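Entry for the shared binder. Reason: the reviewer on the internal report wants the predicted structure included alongside the sequence.
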Amino acid sequence: MSVVCQCFSVIVPNEVIEQKFPGGVAGYEASCPNQTYCSDGLLTRVGFMAPEDFKFYVLELSKHDIRAIDSYEGTDVIVIDQFKGPVWRCGWIRFAVEENLARAWMAGTEPGELAKPKEFIDAKIARIDPPGPEGTRIVHTPGWNPLEAKSLYSTDTYSEHQIAEELDRWGRG
């Protein structure tokens, strides 16, 4: 099984949620701040459109001792950018774009069937151009027409140190 990854996906193993979140997986799902929750039985996923939103959510998870980065070695949660993959190193996650749709699954398992939110909007990726000036990428959706300029622009790039600094800046530390 795997979980869909659209925009920014906050992914936590169900085992971690059962151990650390009040009410376990059921409590986690009930507390989801939007309609993007899904689970494949091993991983849970909650999605966000903006970096500020996923950062706030990750900080909220840290109140339950669900940690994003622990000395760059261990992590209870991973954030995945649908265009670039995991935003920091994480040994327990695998990521791929298959059939024009980004997905993540637990390392050591097969991707299998894709778990999606109940209100899933199928926004597939047709093509991602190589980085241009200043790292800008153009992401084309299926049916993209250059005359209609229906492209999504992404300029964010991440490193482990950048995300750690950002989390510290947001009050994690």
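Summary line for the report: Residues 2-119+162-169 form one domain.
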